[in-house]
Amino acid sequence: MTNMQKFDLSTAEAEIGTPAADRLISGAPQFKTWNLEEAEGGLYAGVWESTPGKWRIVYEEWEYFHILSGYSIVTQDGGEAAHLRAGDSMILRPGFEGTWEVVETTRKDYVIRL
């Protein structure tokens, strides 16, 4: 076993998903998630991609992500919209509630801690 891992999507199978029906606001977004690492203590890392659409998000976990491609808008309830494009990074903390709108198919890498 090695103590390093390259993010290589060609060796991983994507999980396919969609937002929960009761959270969907518009469109028909489809997700692909390549969860490349799962470590003790509830730590996950990988790559996520979504086609256009808008849905409600509620975070119980902590997440750091970096946008690799596309264009999305993340808006906290009662707050300003964050327009995210390739090169942008963000942290969403437990208790965050708002919306995620994918305007152009978006791909991000992520680290999540439960």
TrEMBL record:
CDD domains: cupin_TM1112-like (cd02227). InterPro entries: RmlC-like_jellyroll, RmlC_Cupin_sf, UGlyAH_Cupin_dom. Residues 38-110 form the (S)-ureidoglycine aminohydrolase cupin domain. Pfam families: Cupin_3. SUPFAM superfamilies: RmlC-like cupins. This is Cupin domain-containing protein.
